[in-house]
């Protein structure tokens, strides 16, 4: 074979490969639809936050959706929140205290019990700490239940 014949064969193979390609149609989404979904989600989150009580009695009486509380929420959201708050109150990282609070949540115990247990460490700030934690807990479990 001469070099011209080899080149022609190579070109024929390339042409055959090009012809065999299957084009897949691209699907485009309207930016307006995405914006509407984003706005709708933001509105639902805002509505949820507004329904969560800010007073002690309302928080303590709230029926927490414990079935929605999973390790992902505990480890990725609540644990860092608890850790930051404890450092804020005590000035040092207390891993045992963080573990205690996380175990309390894993065992689905009440806010009143946690407040009493935390009084030894946080004194009068224990109630404020548990209120903030309970708001966060309610938000996370409700947003998961509502698929936000």
Number of domains: 1
Main β-sheet description? none
Hey, roughly how much beta strand do the residues contain?
Answer: under 5%
So what's the CATH class?
Mainly Alpha
Shape: elongated
Please give the number of β-strands: 0
CATH fourth-tier homologous superfamily: PWI domain
Assigned CATH architecture: Up-down Bundle
Keywords:
148 residues; mainly alpha; PWI domain; 7 helices; 0% strand; elongated
What does this structure look like?
- This protein is an all-alpha fold and 148 residues long.
- It has a single domain, classed as Up-down Bundle (PWI domain).
- Helix content is 74%, strand content 0%.
- It contains seven helices and no strands.
- Helix 4 packs across helix 5.
- The longest helix is centred in the N-terminal third of the chain and has 21 residues.
- The protein is elongated.
- The model has no long low-confidence stretch (mean pLDDT 87).
Please write out the topology:
Layout: H1 3-20, H2 31-51, H3 56-61, H4 71-90, H5 95-106, H6 111-122, H7 125-145
Helix pairs in contact: 4-5, 4-7, 6-7
Short structural summary:
This protein has 148 residues and is mainly α. The protein is 74% helix and 0% strand. It has one domain (36-146): PWI domain.
């Amino acid at each position: 074979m001469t070099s011209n014949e080899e080149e022609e064969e190579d070109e024929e193979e390339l042409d055959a490969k090009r012809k065999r390609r299957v084009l897949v149609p691209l699907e485009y989404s309207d930016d307006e639809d995405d914006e509407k979904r984003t706005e709708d989600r933001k509105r639902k989150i805002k509505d949820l936050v507004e329904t969560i009580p800010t007073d002690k009695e309302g928080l303590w009486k709230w029926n927490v959706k414990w079935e929605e509380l999973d390790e992902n929420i505990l480890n990725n959201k609540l644990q860092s929140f608890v850790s930051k708050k404890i450092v804020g109150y005590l000035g040092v990282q207390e891993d045992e205290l963080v573990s205690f609070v996380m175990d309390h949540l894993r065992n689905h115990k009440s806010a009143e019990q946690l407040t009493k247990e935390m009084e030894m460490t946080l004194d009068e700030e224990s109630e404020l700490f548990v209120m903030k934690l309970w708001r966060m807990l309610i938000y996370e479990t409700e947003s998961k239940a509502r698929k936000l």
